[in-house]
Design brief:
alpha+beta, Hypothetical protein af1432, Beta Polymerase, domain 2, Ubiquitin-like (UB roll), 5-stranded mixed β-sheet, 4-stranded mixed β-sheet, 48% helix
Amino acid sequence: MLANYYPNDIPKYLSHPLVDEAKNSLMHAIGYLSTHERADVLRACHFGDIAHIKDKRKSGEPYITHPIAVAEIIAGFKLDRDTLISAILHDTVEDTEVTHDMLVAEFGETVAKLVDGVTKLKSSSMSKQHSQAATFHKILVATLTDPRVLIIKLSDRLHNMSTLDAVREEKQKSTARETLDFYIPFARIMGLNDIADYIELLCYRNLNPAMYTKFSDKLLQHGLGRQFQKIESSTYLQDLLVNLSLNGHVQVLDNRTSMYRQFFKNRGEINRLIRQYDFEVVLDDIASCDKLAYYLIQKYEIADRNIQDNIRKPLAGGNQSLTLIYEKDHNYIKVTLLTKRMKEASRLGVIGRDKGDISHSVIQASLRNMQDLVNQDVDSDNAESAIAVINNLMSYLHERKIVCYSPQGRAYELPRGATALDFAYAVGPAIGNIATGADINGEHGKLGLVLADGDTVSIDTDKNATPKADWLGFVATTKARHEILKFLKHLDDPQKQEAGKEALARALKAYDKTLSDLSDEDWGDILAWRGVQSQTDIFMQIATGTLLPQLVISRLFSEEVDIADGQEITQSKHLIAGVKGVELSFGKCCNPIYGDNIVGHLSSRQGLTIHRHKCYSLQAIRAESPYQIIQLGWKNDVNIDHHAHQLHFSANLQIHATLNEEQISQAIYELRAINVGVENTTKSEDKHDKGKASTTKLKVVVRSRQHLEEAIEKLRQVLGYPNILRLYQ
């Protein structure tokens, strides 16, 4: 039929009344376009109608109603003609006889490229996992070239998520999980928060309808009271603007996405969540934001922990605002202060028109990081290669991020736990390779010092300096590690040996030792441990990154305990990657579990102690002796069987609910059904605050972090979804 397509011969009615309805709704939404552009969009509707004439949705509707609806979502952002047409035709190349060349001929090269960017990669030779990885990779690459690809894909996902009732429950949940894992964090890091909010809410509805309904019913029960509180608080804020002679307006925000997220992710007690109210105050300038913030801080005595000033230093994703949280009449009020330009930036993100502001520079920092991921060698025919890149992307999207700044104000996005040396390599290899120290917020610090969100960092350099092998122990970013190894790899063998020797000498110096202090017996033990013949071989292993000098120190200063290769894993410490033959202990201060983000603390007294990455007991050590903290990871080739008694990790849980003996017995029964042991239970009550409910503490035994998450989810279901915290001790 497309062979007989005449672009100027557009009928008054399309193939079905539902298609006409979708088309008319879209045409009303694109009134901001010129007459000529509107005509092109109408022509695209006709073209798509013919292309999809045989296709039906699961609901039985003509398929073309879906892409036209996607275009209408995009019209809400007032995007251009090419983006709208690409949305209408986004499935044509994938599902119909339409080709790339036909799109070029009819609607231009840009439309054809945008459609190609959102087209899934399918092949009979690909596994489902490989196909998904290849598609994600393609979307990422296309988005880095033209961000409009992402807004089309998100709008497509939004409409699909809102119409999942017609598909089977298993498909609903898998689609919701994929969306939460990939599309939501991708959208947020690109600053597309409005559309991400709508999609995320739909994810929760499809992921667990019973849990979603539970919270929805609770909101309905309190609907009238919540509405009264919204009106009262917004009126107060609007009157306050008048009293302070500020020009602006107050908007009540729909904070359902935030509340559902906290509820689903076990980050808030249900009765507290429904007493949260969000307001947005849009003002003329930053000075007005500061004036209103100062008044509210003084009036409600807002603590520093409830003040988040991201106007000067935006969050990852470019979110730029000043946020205050205070309590009033047992309600929790969140007020976000921002300017009109900041509001537009938070809504449009990477597709916004203002390319010179600070929020856009933060998004550019994210784009640079993702470009580094894309630049990894990927063989599209190699499933393992494609999946590895997407696994790295997933890790990047989900890791906690900080944004640090150069003295000139340029933003650099880093993972939480990154050091000043990671910052140096983020600036560029030419800086990282010759770094000698850092000034952090005006104070001199070491390269191994862990950075905090918003830090301003200046790197000290020496043109004669070179990367050190022991740096590999404390860098947190893949880029820094890659550049250090790249430099070391290109040294000749004598240079590598000298680099390894110097690295070990520096590690010994931290413990007031030198290489000459090592006895023949010490060297004999080290050589036997590593299975090599000479000291030179040890130096080569250090220089090539296969051995950290810090681990040599731990081996020397602690008694070795090991198990034979092939023996069944019975002790959790043998799950740590790259530390075979080193005596380990697990910190009692934070009780790390397999799957936690971990680091190692080296000390001459205790050897290598494993801690959770955010363990509070490491704060002073990080500041004074950052080189004693090394980055560690778990072995990734271990099959943890949650139904076997293979591993034993203890965790302490605090349940924020008043439980009777019957409920506690039921909880223990349900935990045992999923092979989670319960060592003891205790109940406590806050005698100083009669308004607070009592809590119940459980000490449980699990196999991994995932196993613990299953246990918490099971407990929440059984006990009516209370808030459950994992305690450090």
